[in-house]
Amino acid sequence: MTWLFSPPSFDDFIRLLKAWRFWSVGVLIGGLIGAAVYYVAPPPYRAHATVLVDFNMEQAWPQETDREQFYYLGRETQKLEEIAFSDAVMEAVVVFTPQVSVMELRDEKLSLGQPGDGGWHFYAEDNDPKQAEVLASAWANAFTQQVTAQVASAEGLNSFIEVTVTQAANLPVERSIAFSTYLFTGMIGFLALASILVLFFDFGQKSTASQ
Length: 211
Description:
Helix content is 62%, strand content 15%. By secondary structure, the chain is α+β, with helices and mostly antiparallel strands.
């Protein structure tokens, strides 16, 4: 047990380097394990729609400092994020996909990509690529309509905010986790386990010899 918690020695590194054949085979085995997991239990598909959000800060705060404009941008961005996941927007999305509940949309299927001044990416995940595309498109359109309505009626949003759907049809759809990520994770995981086994196996030999 003391050996397990002792700092690594130079001999430990030498033993690991000498096992280069084992590492070569380990990389192959780890990659195959990662590939097998990918095909047996593949990640869901992910589609994303894009909405252009323009805060028009120069018009909204023409006389203010950069610091005040920064706080304005943060405050309005937070408001828009809340609208994106609001009941009104979620219920509008459910109309297009009645088999999916609002809770599933919020907790599992929908996510925003780094909102700010510019393009907002509305991501949707589903095991069916067509369903993922429908969810992303419906979410982007529902968000745009809700924000436009609130800006027009002056309900908590600055009147200079403009939102425009720039991509909501023929959306790019791909797996939420790349195949290469599974390969890399499999290889790294197997090599980490193999490193422990090489050292432990050598330690067992040394202990046997000492007895």
